[in-house]
Specification:
By secondary structure, the chain is an alpha/beta fold. The protein has four domains: 6-137, Response regulator (Rossmann fold); 150-314, Rossmann fold (3-Layer(aba) Sandwich); 316-388, Helicase, Ruva Protein, domain 3 (Orthogonal Bundle), CATH 1.10.8.60; 399-455, Homeodomain-like (Arc Repressor Mutant, subunit A, Orthogonal Bundle), CATH 1.10.10.60. The chain is built from 18 helices and 18 strands. It is elongated, with a radius of gyration of 31 Å. Residues 392-401 have low confidence and may be disordered.
């Protein structure tokens, strides 16, 4: 059974209100009337109005003023202006200000019925289209992740299956691809979703600090341990323990972690009591662990313990069809967070976004859009709002022909560092990577701060 169509008639002439109510009632619509703008505003909260038929000339609040008020609180309500022959030009101006249409008095009942029917059918099509767009977005969404790339859709489907088990998951991918977001999605899709999701950044801590962070410590375990403290493994309880950048931990801690995974229990630093592990473990890394095993930097037995279920997130440069979808996703989020109303990205700016290689992946794209939202002065993001290097072929841009991806990444990182006077925090933010990753890239590419020449 289809919902009733609600129509509000606003006119200071009683005969007009009664005639319209009678005709529209016979057509099966739910009709209510108001004799002026003030009374109409009082009736607005009564129900969801599909259509408001508003007289242009009324004492007190006129039709245009009432339309503005309706649009503030009920933007989904279609407004039709009713007018006499002498004011048709004014009605056309009303349409420019937001009225859907206008009808001229006196009314022909048959013409009126046809007009209303077309408007209602159009409104129904618009709602169906919005619904279908939302449903389509759902197919491309997994919690805070969006993608229409076929590999990512397969990963989304895998996550929903994997989430039902308790198996260890190893998430691999470059920095900024969304490894933690995917891990959180596994947690939220699992029966553990109401329990804690506890994250540990293994790359950000020294060996001793990471050991204390993971396992906790007893009072007196070391200098400064004036009271006992629970570690992240304990705090995760029946939830999920997320070990980020697992490839960066020391060989000693790798051995400790292997023993914990095998025995499902651990001791606090300086403690003797065995504490059981009831959480699920998800590990993530941007390193090539097989290569690290060959180099003697990662234990092979730990790798196979972690690699029960492996998920590899492809970099953004391999799924560029996701860029417009991600941009729309970030625009929606930042419009809410910043209280802005940016409609979209100009075609030339989108072309720049599509041509960029995104060494920092989705995180870099997010940061670029965030900056653009802050600096833009209009309703559209323009080329000048994007902090991106110009593509080859544009005057002043470096020529990328014949250069490998690694060479382009090195050049881009060097350029960002120079532009920001080697401010590591700011440069990492612009690149969309964390400081540890940036330091690793500086070492990898042997980048050095160039001296400033005084001229």
């Amino acid at each position: 059974m289809e919902p009733k169509v609600n129509i509000l008639i606003v006119d200071d002439e009683e005969i007009v209100r009664e005639s319209l109510a009678s005709w529209l009632g016979e057509d099966g619509y739910e009709v209510a009337a108001a004799e002026n703008g003030a009374r109409a505003l009082e009736r607005l909260p009564e129900r969801d109005w599909n259509l408001a038929m508003v007289d242009l000339k009324m004492p007190g609040m006129d039709g245009i003023q009432l339309m503005d008020e309706i649009r503030k609180t009920r933007p989904e309500t279609i407004v039709i202006i009713m007018t006499a022959y002498a004011t048709v030009d004014t009605a056309v101006q009303a349409m420019k200000k937001g009225a859907y249409d206008y009808i001229v008095k006196p009314f022909n009942p048959e013409d009126l019925s046809m007009t209303i029917r077309k408007i209602i059918e159009h409104q129904k099509l618009v709602k169906e289209n919005l619904y279908l767009r939302k449903e389509l977005k759902k197919q491309y969404r997994l919690h805070d992740m969006v993608s229409k790339n076929h590999k990512m859709i397969e990963i989304f489907d895998l996550v929903k299956t994997v989430a039902k088990s308790n198996s260890i998951v190893l998430v691999q991918g470059e920095s900024g691809t969304g490894k933690e977001l995917l891990s959180r999605a596994i947690h939220m899709e699992s029966p553990r979703k109401d329990e804690p999701f506890v994250s540990v950044s293994c790359a950000a801590l020294t060996e001793n600090l990471l050991e204390s962070e993971l396992f906790g410590y007893e009072k007196g375990a070391f200098t400064g341990a004036d009271q006992a403290r629970s570690g992240k493994m304990e705090l995760a309880k029946d939830g999920t323990l997320f070990l980020d950048e697992i490839g960066d931990i020391s060989l000693k801690l790798q051995m400790d972690l292997l023993r914990v995974i095998e025995q499902r229990e651990f001791r606090r630093v300086g403690g003797t009591q065995l504490i059981p592990i009831t959480s699920r473990i998800i590990a993530a890394t941007n390193r090539d662990l097989k290569k690290a095993i060959e180099e003697g930097k990662f234990r092979e037995d730990l790798y196979y313990r972690l690699n029960v279920i492996s998920i590899h997130i492809p970099p953004l440069r391999e799924r560029k069809e996701d860029i417009p979808l991600l941009v729309e996703h970030f625009l929606d989020r930042f419009n809410i967070e910043m209280g802005k109303n940016v409609d979209g990205v100009a075609e030339s700016a989108m072309r720049l976004l599509m041509e960029h290689d995104w060494p920092g992946n989705a995180r870099e794209l997010r940061n670029v859009i965030e900056r653009a939202m802050v600096v833009t002065k209009g309703r559209m993001i323009l080329d000048a709002d994007l902090s991106l290097p110009r593509p080859s072929g544009v005057p002043g841009a470096p020529d990328s022909r014949g250069k490998s991806l690694a060479e382009m990444e090195k050049e881009h990182i060097r350029q960002v560092l120079q532009e920001n006077r080697w401010n590591i925090i700011r440069s990492a933010h612009i690149l969309g990577i964390d400081r540890v990753t940036l330091y690793n890239k500086i070492r990898k590419y042997e980048l050095k701060k160039e001296p400033v020449l005084n001229t």
